[in-house]
From TrEMBL:
It catalyses: L-alanine = D-alanine. PROSITE patterns: ALANINE_RACEMASE. It comes from the Bacteria. Residues 231-355 form the Alanine racemase C-terminal domain. It comes from Trinickia terrae. The keyword Acyltransferase does not apply. The active site is at residues 35, 252. Signal peptide: none annotated. The lineage of its organism: Bacteria, Pseudomonadati, Pseudomonadota, Betaproteobacteria, Burkholderiales. Keywords: Isomerase, Pyridoxal phosphate. The keyword Flavoprotein does not apply. Catalyzes the interconversion of L-alanine and D-alanine. May also act on other amino acids. One of its GO terms (cellular component) is cytosol. This is Alanine racemase. Pathway: Amino-acid biosynthesis; D-alanine biosynthesis; D-alanine from L-alanine: step 1/1.
Amino acid sequence: MPRPIAAYVHADAVRHNLDVIKQRASRAKVWAVVKANAYGHGIERIYPALATADGIALLDLDEAVRIRDLGWKKPILLLEGVFQPEDVETADALGLTVAVHCDDQLDLIAAAPRSRPIDIYLKMNSGMNRLGFAPDTFRAAWERANAAESVGEITLMNHFAAADESDIDWQMDRFEAATSGIPGPRSLSNSAAVLWHERAHRDWVRPGIILYGGSPSGLSRHIADVPLRASMSLVSEIIGTQALRAAETVGYGRTFEAGHDMRIGVVACGYADGYPRHAPTGTPIAVDGIPTRVVGRVSMDMLTVDLTPCPNAGIGSKVELWGDQVKIDDVAASAGTIGYELMCALARRVPVKAR
Ligand SMILES: *Cc1c(COP(=O)(O)O)cnc(C)c1O
């Protein structure tokens, strides 16, 4: 028998979340962001849920190939653009829209004649300071792109540094000032801006994490009023129990000491499955639907839970590591990270099932 661990991917939840996004940003078109293999879900698994998206956005060319192989005829956006001349050929062959964040990328696209002009997303660095043209060079970049025969439609693109915090105005103001009078559609908003900054919705929004039911801020309470559903659950079972006497410890490093006699359960899930090793004692988890806590250190293949709230639990009891009941954001926050990372880190050895 295989280990009892499994991840479930709920395409229906993605479909539902996409509807929520379309209601929220009702005047904008929606790029469904599926980079990193759909945030660890598997592109092919959630693809059927994306039918009403206006486009699909990703980073890797092989993911773009997979999406076209699945039969997607609508736009595909390459969020980091091209890296070498061959990429432009692939982008041309697949009919991709490509981000252009620097002169080198513009050179690549301008260099060779194309079967048809390539639509681009001209990216401004309005303060994130990763990729993009500085505001004072943006207009010149646009003029150059606009003059290039191999460039088709030019969309003006921005990425927010902190749209999960209250203030995006400083970045919006820079973007608006540097683009005033330049024609063309605008695309500014990630998930956080879709939820919290209507002013930034504009022509195309680019939600990722909320498609999968995660919180853009990393905190579940920030999306408590948004009817999103979790698209990934990680489940396993209890494979052993121990009766601890007061003052006994559990696991590596003896980090948890029983304050009184108690039962613990051993769960077939560890950091080699993608569960965060830094999840401390107290991290939420559910056994047979009853909320309880992780105790002691997470090891490679196992972790241990407090069975005090679930006296009837034993070998074979169902465990939810994250999903509908245990929010991935709460597990992540306890471990000092964000739901994005846990989704993306789901290990290959975990069998993934559809539900
Ligand atoms: C990943 C990414 C997004 C989606 O971000 P979320 O926070 O997951 O919504 C949007 N735009 C760009 C350029 C990205 O790289």
